[in-house]
Design brief:
The structure is a single chain. By secondary structure, the protein is an alpha/beta fold. It starts with 32 loop residues before the first strand and ends in a 12-residue tail after the last helix. The C terminus is likely disordered.
Length: 970
């Protein structure tokens, strides 16, 4: 019997002792969980599954069942035990048009279901399938292809494995070893197959390769060592059996002539799992035994897998092949040079298979389990440091910040010791396949960026500054926005960078590159891609059509509710999404606004998303409103440069504007409900990040921007808490600005009373001195803050309405105005008269008011705000003063001049970004080692102002956070 003839689903598998139990506890793992299958008929569709595993021979089938479904009790498996077959279900859908070899059994075969939980606790529904269809037996390639198509169509699986016995292709691959590949070459010779148009074709799964995290543990602790089976007595008995089977063979040979390294018992110690990515297996429709080096180009030899590769690739399903070596390369000559006949070689291969195929299949099944269970990661990557990570002496501050910020775990709220108690996530993540990919110009809408690889779901790493470290313009906010928390289609599709050092890349270089070139975009995957990885357990299906009406998350609880209105109902139905801490998060797959709020009967409305790692995927970039909010200001200043004769000026966020946050870790809102529940928990985060670690302040000191735009009063309160003593203005900024952000905007854009952040300290006899213009802006997350508008206090509005009632009555949208009165719960809020965001329409409305109601228009002028124009006026002022400059390259091009001091962020001993540094800052002499760090420490130590009044303190923790309003549809 060989792997070619062992096709009966009812015969004894082979010879030998009992298959050992699987000692899962040795690697601290649990056996797969058997899943119940509802009563069914053979012609029914298969259950839904994430993964399909197909095997072929009787030996493979029994070993697969033992590992995946029979190992919970810790018992072994006798070769002649077939009682386990009662738990397998026949499958015949679409098989009636094909006829099999009677020995093969009824088409298509048998199946059962198990669940495997990987290292990140993601459950995988796995369909195990014993195929009765074979390429080298009826119904040949046509039947095998039809079977694979039916299985994949029924299950909707994302990936398929073919596992089982195989012939060795290389002398270093020994009996009992396992080989893993993702490529297959098809070689057909039988007349029933040879006419296939893909004969000779090679297939390669480019989008995925199985995980190997558990490879070493399984090799050392679970795989069966074939030298325990092939004792000297057994080997002699096999040789005797060989001579009995072919007594008339004329060639003289001895046992030593047949024993080579792939099968010699002394060489069969610890079996090895060979990872041969992109090395094709050879699929034949005849029994091929490797000889010497005639198959060295192949990872192994078998008789079905290339057909699976072809059909899976056509259907967009990922595939891999994990085969155990049951018949290694057989010598072609004796020690004296005499040629061994084909019949001797075939018979020797057969007796080895009969004795060992059951046990080598055990190894192959375990290696396949390891590939599935090895997905994900149970630990933080990189490991988290409670104190600043040690860095190599001699690195400049801007490079040190990459190491220290990315690995920071100071705040236990964001980074608890037990990853399963993290309050947010784990969220969909991606990696880059190159250290420094090309930079793609973006668009106003979502656009393809590059091909990436999914990473295990995770919480986003802390962020360093975005953009050029010597850009003269800087914006600063509180912390990054946790966009995936927002219930919406985009919330479900967002993905965060999580860089690895796989495939000869470097995680630190990728992290630095990403934040050097990040501008106004955030990454996401297509919603269709994400939908494939909504876990089956816990899905909420629509019993009938309807609309999503509300999806609110009032705090950081993983359990929250949505409201839907089913067709024909008069009221909403509230659905509780029962999320649990540390579990994969619930997402909604519809929006609360048209057109993507409507669902049909049977649609999945919500579920837990768990996108696995290692998948190649197109990464899309989507402009984020917060980051694009500064663009109109920048474009106005660009017009100023053009008017000054610099026609080639083209300013960009990320190149000319550095974006920074005072807190490096992301959250959905900045208030106690989302940050630990109390003001004290927020205070701890702020003290750690802004004060103790001073990440943003260190970057500010290294960058030396000409102007710093502080985004919102909340950010100003936080900045003032640590640097307020260094803020200089003739008349101090108010502790309690009546109109919050807008009062501060007016005060800090007043050219007669500029507001500056002044650093002047001496460290070790060396002076550090720098002045930055300070501007406080409305919050970038709310576009309505930046439309032209009039703002009046309650008293001013009362007087205005009394004096100009006719004009107030004319403040209608038909005339170009939108009147927004204070909410009843906030009677002290200002009344707002908004104009259109379209400059021409806004100008027309103001002109109409000047003509029709000149006195009222004159009374309104002091209350007028155009935030973009006011912010741009500061840039114009600094340009006229020479504090913002243009460097002309003499060929019609140039750049906004960089700030003082050296910078080695893009070019250093750890990495070198292509075509950098374009400003020559890496050629300037850096400051003494650790000088800027000591400057930062002294500035923080002397930066605390007089205590804020309690209302101002409260404003810093109750003002709106970083979350933007619901975005437009995808």
């Amino acid at each position: 019997m060989t792997r070619y003839t062992d096709i009966s689903p009812s015969e004894s598998v082979a010879k030998g002792p009992e298959l050992p139990s699987v000692e899962w506890q040795r690697i601290n793992q649990a056996a797969p969980l058997r899943l119940r299958i509802d009563p069914r008929s053979p012609g029914d569709r298969l259950p839904a599954a994430d993964i399909v595993i197909v095997t072929w021979t009787s030996a493979e089938w029994s070993a697969m069942d033992h590992v995946f479904a029979g190992s919970e009790a810790g018992a072994g498996r006798a070769i002649h035990d077939w009682s386990w077959k009662e738990n397998w279900f026949p499958y015949t859908r679409a098989a009636s048009g094909f006829t099999a070899d009677p020995k093969s059994g009824a088409l298509w075969g048998y199946f059962r279901m198990v669940q495997i939980t990987d290292r990140s606790q993601r459950p995988w529904r796995v369909l195990l399938f014993k195929s009765n269809s074979h390429l080298a037996h009826p119904p040949w390639i046509e039947g095998l292809s039809a079977m694979i198509r039916a299985i994949l169509a029924d299950t909707g699986a994302d990936r398929i494995y073919s596992i089982g016995t195989a012939g060795g292709g290389r002398l270093n691959v020994r009996l009992g070893d396992v080989v893993v590949t993702n490529a297959a070459l098809l070689d057909l010779q039988r007349p029933q197959n040879a006419g296939d148009p893909d004969n000779g074709a090679m297939f390669r799964c480019q989008t995925w390769y199985p995980a190997s995290a558990l490879k070493a543990e399984v090799e050392q602790n679970l795989l069966y060592r074939l030298r325990d089976l092939l004792t000297p007595d057994i080997v002699n008995a096999l040789f005797a059996e060989l001579q009995i089977r072919d007594p008339d063979d004329p060639s003289p040979y001895t046992l030593d002539d047949l024993l080579n390294d792939p099968i010699r018992p002394s060489e069969l110690g610890t079996p090895f799992i060979h990872l041969l990515k992109d090395v094709p297996l050879l699929t034949t429709d005849f029994y091929f035994i490797g000889a010497d080096d005639d198959a060295v180009a192949y990872s192994f030899l078998e008789m079905d897998d290339a057909v699976i590769a072809r059909e899976a690739e056509r259907l967009g399903v990922r595939y891999a092949f994990i085969r155990n070596i049951s018949d290694p390369i057989v010598n072609t000559r004796t020690g004296s040079g005499q040629r061994l006949t084909d019949s001797v070689r075939s018979a020797w291969s057969a007796v080895v298979y009969e004795q060992c195929g059951f046990f080598t299949s055990f190894n192959g099944a375990l290696a396949t389990w390891a590939a599935i269970a090895g997905e994900g990661t149970p630990v933080y990557d990189p490991p988290r440091d409670r104190v600043a990570a040690p860095t190599t002496a001699g690195d400049p501050l801007e490079v040190k910040l990459v190491r220290e910020v990315r690995s920071c775990g100071t705040c236990t709220f964001f980074w608890p010791d037990d990853k399963r108690t993290q309050p947010y996530g784990p969220y969909t993540a991606f990696d880059l396949e190159l250290n420094t990919p090309y930079v793609v110009p973006g668009s106003d809408n979502g656009h393809p960026w590059l091909l990436g690889r999914t990473r295990a779901p995770s919480f986003p790493d802390p962020e360093v500054a975005d953009g050029c470290r010597k850009a003269p313009i800087m914006t600063i906010g509180i912390n990054p926005n946790l966009t995936a928390f927002l219930p919406s289609q985009r919330g479900a599709a967002w993905a965060y960078p999580s860089f690895s050092s796989l495939d000869n890349t470097d995680a630190w270089t990728k992290y630095a590159w990403y934040y050097r070139y990040r501008s106004v975009y955030q990454e996401r995957f297509s919603l269709d891609f994400v939908r494939k990885f909504i876990l089956p357990e816990g899905r909420f299906y629509a019993p009938r059509g309807g609309r999503l009406m509300a999806a609110l998350r009032p705090d950081d609880s993983p359990q929250w509710t949505i409201a839907v209105r089913y067709d024909g109902d008069a009221t909403d139905t509230v659905i509780t999404l029962p999320g649990q801490l540390g579990d994969f998060p619930y997402v909604v797959l519809f929006d609360v606004f048209p057109p993507n709020n409507a669902f049909a009967a049977g649609d999945v409305i919500a579920g837990r998303v768990a996108v696995p790692e290692g998948l190649q995927v197109e990464v899309l970039q989507e402009p984020q409103g917060y980051y694009t909010q500064f663009l109109p200001t920048l474009h106005r200043f660009q017009d100023t440069l053009h008017a000054a004769g610099h026609g080639g000026a083209k300013l960009q966020i990320g190149e000319d504007v550095t974006q920074l946050d005072m807190v490096a870790c992301a959250s959905p809102h900045w208030n106690p409900g989302f940050l630990g529940g109390t003001p004290q928990s927020i205070t701890e985060i702020v003290d750690n990040c802004v004060g103790r670690n001073a990440w943003a302040i260190k970057q500010l000191i290294q960058t030396r921007p000409a102007v710093l735009f502080v985004v919102s009063q909340s950010s100003w309160n936080m900045l003032r808490q640590f640097l307020g003593a260094h803020v200089m203005r003739a008349e101090p900024l108010p502790d309690r600005p009546e109109d919050h952000d807008f009062t501060l905007l007016r005060s800090t854009t007043d050219p007669m009373q500029p507001c500056n952040l002044v650093f002047d300290v001496v460290v070790d006899g060396l002076r550090y001195q720098h002045t930055t213009r300070l501007v406080i802006t409305p919050h970038f997350s709310y576009g309505t803050n930046f439309v032209p508008q009039y703002r009046l206090s309650p008293a001013e509005w009362e007087n205005f309405t009394a004096s100009y009632a006719d004009f107030v009555a004319a403040l209608t949208e038909e005339n170009g105005f939108r009147l927004i009165l204070p909410d009843a719960e906030k009677p002290d809020a200002y009344t707002v008269v908004q104009l259109s965001a379209d400059p021409e329409k806004a100008a027309a409305a103001r002109s109409w008011a000047e003509q029709q109601f000149p006195a009222a228009a004159a009374a309104l002028r002091p209350s007028y705000y155009d935030a973009n124009a006011m912010m741009a006026s500061v840039l114009d002022d600094l340009f006229q003063q020479g504090k913002l400059g243009w460097t002309d390259l003499g060929n019609g091009t140039g750049y906004l001049s960089r700030t003082e001091g050296s910078c080695q962020f893009c070019v250093n001993r750890h990495w070198r970004f292509p075509n950098e540094c374009r400003y020559g800052k890496d050629k300037e002499a850096p400051p003494p080692a650790d000088f800027l760090e000591r400057v930062a420490a002294q500035i923080v130590a002397t930066g605390k102002p007089a205590p804020l009044t309690p209302p101002a303190v409260m404003a810093s923790v109750t003002a709106p956070g970083a979350m933007a309003p619901p975005p437009p549809p995808l």
